Structures are given as C-alpha cells and as structure tokens.
Amino acid sequence: MLDGKGQTDGMLARINSLREEPGGRRFFVNDLNGPLYIVDKATRRITTYLDFNGREGRRGLFHKLAYESGFANGLNSFQFDPDYRTNGKFYTVHIEDPSLPGPAAPDNANHPSLNVTGYSTTPPVPTPGPIEREGVLIEWTDSNLSNTTFEGTARELLRVSLNTRIHTLADLEFNPSARRGDSEWRVLYIGSGDGGSGEAKSSIRMNPQRLDTLVGKVLRIIPDLAEHRSTSTLSDSGRYRIPNDNPFVSVEGARKEVWAYGFRNPHRLHFAVDPANPGNNRLIADSVGLHTWETVNIVHKGANYGYSQREGNETLQPDNRTTNLPDDDKIPVQITDTITRGTVTPTYPVIQYGHVKGGGDAIGSGFLYRGKLLPALRGKYIFTDITTGHVWYADYREMLAADDGKPETLAAMHQIKLSWVNPYASVTPATRIYDTIFPIAEAAYHARGGKGEHLPGVALVSGDGRADAHVAIDAAGELYFFTKTDGTLRVVTALDAGS
Ligand SMILES: [Ca+2]
Ligand SMILES: [Ca+2]
C-alpha cells in the first residue's frame, strides 16, 4: 500500500512491458524497480523470476542498477528469442549507474542457479560527452522452461554509454513474420534513446545525428554468434554479429549496428504484421518529443528521422523551438562531429500530436490490433499518451499512405473511450465511460492507499499527475493496459471507439 503523496517509484510495481511467453501459458512482466515477474494466465499467480535490483544490500543481481527515478531507468525491457521454446533464450535491457560501487557483472549470491562462470562485461561503446548511465543488453538462457525459476547462463552482448539518465537503451523487437532460413530470422532491432543529448545546447546535441554513436538510433544486430555467419560480420566486442545488409556497414567511421537514426527517444518498437498482405508489414517506432511533437514513425533502412535538426514535421532550432521547414529540406549526413558525407532529406512521422490540450506530453506504446475481442479495432494502430492516459487509434492503411516522403501528410488520430466498472467502489456503480485511462489509474491509486489528490508526478499537458499509461498485446493480439503509477494491469475486453 502507498502511504504518501510522493512518487510511487520503488513502492508499487512500475510495469514497463508485458509479453506473452511463446507457447501461451504465462506472461512475463518487467518492473523498472528490478523484478522480472511471471504471471500464470490460469491462476494469476505472480512469481519473481529474476530480480535485477542488487543495490545497497538488496538481494538482486546488479549492484549498479539505476532504478530510482527518471523515466525508463531500471529493468527497462525484455524480449523472447523467436526460437525460445527450443533454446530457452531471452534478452533484457537494464540501466546502470557506472559511478556506483560494486562489480558490473551479476552477483549470483542469492541466485545460485544462475551460472556466472565465464561471465564478463563488455567495454561500454563510447558516446561523446559526459556519461551518467550505461544501457546493458544481456542474453539469458534458461535450461528448464517448465518451472518459475531461472537456471542457466547469461551473456552480456552490448553496453552503451548514455549522457544523462533519460532516453535510455530501450525496446527489443524481432520480426515476428521471419521464419527459419529467412535473412530476418532472429535478427534483433533495438530502440536506442539519445540519452538526452539532442536537447543539450553543447556539442553533444549532434549525437542522435552522428553515425559514429549508438544513441538516438534504431540498431539491428544478430545476438547469436552461430546465426547467419556467411551474411554478417562479428561485432567489435565479439559478442554479437552484424548483418551485412545493414545500411552503414561500408561507411567509414559509421557504427555498423545502425539501422535508422535521428531519433530522440524511440522507446517503443512494434512490428506491425498485416495478415492480409505481408507487403504491408512494417517496423514502427513511437518516439517521445521535446517541447512540441510526439511521433509515430515507420522505420526504414538507413533513413534519418531528423532529430535534433527536426522535431515532428518541423525544424528544431538551436534554442529548442520549432519553426517551418526550410525550402531546401536537406541535412548533412553526419559521420562524426566534424566529418559529413553528403546530405539527406529527413523522413517524417506518419502520426504526430502536440503538447496541447487534447494531445499529451509523451507518447507511450502502440500496437497494430489483430485480436478478435474488439473487431472494430482490427487494422488499427492503437497507442497511448503516457501522462494524460489518452488512448487513440489510427487506421493502419492511412499510416502506410502517409509514409510518402511528404512531411505535411499524416494519418488521422481518433480517440478511444474506455468503459470501466470501478472495483474499488463501496457500492458497485454502473459502468462509466472514460475519455482517458487517467481517472481509472487515479481511482486505483487512491484505493491502494495513495494520499495525493491526484496521481504522482507532473507534466505540462496532464497537469498534476501522470497516468503512466501503456498498452500491450498478447500472442493472440488482444489488448492489455497497464499504468505504472497505480501498479495495475488490466485486460481490455471491450472498447467504445469514439470519433
Ligand atoms: Ca527455468
Ligand atoms: Ca507524410
């Protein structure tokens, strides 16, 4: 229970993502505070599978876990290997504060079934400027998938230096339509935030544009050294491979891992799969904006999404205000801070909304709905605003049409209203329709002991309180909502799609 008005960080679960285990029996849910939980679908029993939080006498694995505050710090994301049922592998990203005491390798004192023999860390991939955090990608292999405990090995794949505590290494996605033998099979896409560099008024402002950094990018790697050997090269660290068809592998000075660049915080990736037409499958990145535009982007190989020279479909000026695009809409291809190689026309979002009333402060997760419970939403991309708790949809075909090289064409957004019965009320009330998930999270927060008048946190558009609203889908494509601030996970069984 909560006992005060403060941030719920460290007190309630800060669920950051939910994934259904291949095979469909259990959900895995990661909590920024450190635990990776298993939720049994039949019994709803919750078990702590791994705990990453080994800070200051805590029992978890990592002494340097940075989890206390800031957004997307802690156990940030995880993803199952496409061949998980056979190989037991999954991947995690967590955030460390390198200035904290203790080793960076996992301490298995309280997790003896994790075999750390031979485990070693990797040198952090440098990022120009001061460093406050490191984003760490680890491959885990569980030798027994039939229980709720981890027993097996782990291997650090990648460690990225981050300038500040915001916009960290984030989401992990495999192409769900890839099959064994395809060039995309078991190829991992990584959303890598800019570490806060792009809004700085110093030289690190160029980091998201620089091809010699891994920040402000979507990265593409092959985690398994035995996979695609003839069509890839070994990474500098020797821990993963890099596909030969990545766009910058032959550009001198560029990081070969880069798939697309010029992002501020592409913290949510989603592979949209169109069952009717595989030609419509796309990788989508939801990226959080600075002062003006939240964006949904269709990710193309080698494309430059403009940040920190663009935000949404406008120019971002050095003072962080936005203005109209220039007549000659080109920006240099930046290899380092001083070396450029030609110019490129930026690629623009297919959806954007402003930091205004009716909009929001920070885009959350999004998914192309393909479930059965909500037929009206099939073929729609559903996404949230984190702070206000707005839920919207856009027609996926409109999004594909807006991916046309023209900054002014965008897919329309439509509000989704939520029907909810408050289970915390003393008398069972009638079902109410809500415009956002915010009041739903607030009711749960109060029922669980939250004493603040509103949810914790503050933001420009949401005002007092942040809903921290996210959406997820299960293997059948059905929707789930979760809100970090009240620590609650909800299944969506029906929606009233408003206009
Ligand atoms: Ca196990
Ligand atoms: Ca367009």
Secondary structure blueprint with pairings:
Elements: E1 15-20, E2 26-31, E3 35-40, E4 46-51, E5 75-80, H1 84-87, E6 89-96, E7 114-115, E8 133-142, E9 152-162, E10 169-174, E11 188-192, E12 217-221, E13 232-234, E14 241-243, E15 258-261, E16 268-272, E17 282-287, E18 293-299, E19 310-311, E20 314-316, E21 322-323, E22 331-334, E23 340-344, E24 351-354, E25 363-368, E26 380-385, E27 391-395, H2 396-402, E28 414-420, E29 432-434, H3 438-447, E30 458-459, E31 463-464, E32 469-473, E33 479-483, E34 488-491, E35 496-497
Parallel strand pairs: 7-9
Antiparallel strand pairs: 1-2, 2-3, 3-4, 5-6, 6-8, 8-9, 10-11, 11-12, 12-15, 13-14, 16-17, 17-18, 18-24, 19-20, 20-21, 22-23, 25-26, 26-27, 27-28, 28-29, 28-35, 30-31, 32-33, 33-34
What does this 3D model show about the protein?
The chain has helices spanning 84-87, 396-402, 438-447; strands at 15-20, 26-31, 35-40, 46-51, 75-80, 89-96, 114-115, 133-142, 152-162, 169-174, 188-192, 217-221, 232-234, 241-243, 258-261, 268-272, 282-287, 293-299, 310-311, 314-316, 322-323, 331-334, 340-344, 351-354, 363-368, 380-385, 391-395, 414-420, 432-434, 458-459, 463-464, 469-473, 479-483, 488-491, 496-497. By secondary structure, the chain is mainly β. Strands 25, 26, 27, 28, 29 and 35 form a 6-stranded antiparallel β-sheet that branches. A 5-stranded mixed β-sheet has the order 5-6-8-9-7. The protein is globular. The chain starts with 14 loop residues before the first strand and ends with a strand. Residues 1-11 and 495-499 have low confidence and may be disordered. Bound molecules: calcium ion (CA) (2 copies). The site of one calcium ion (CA) has 5 residues, from loops.
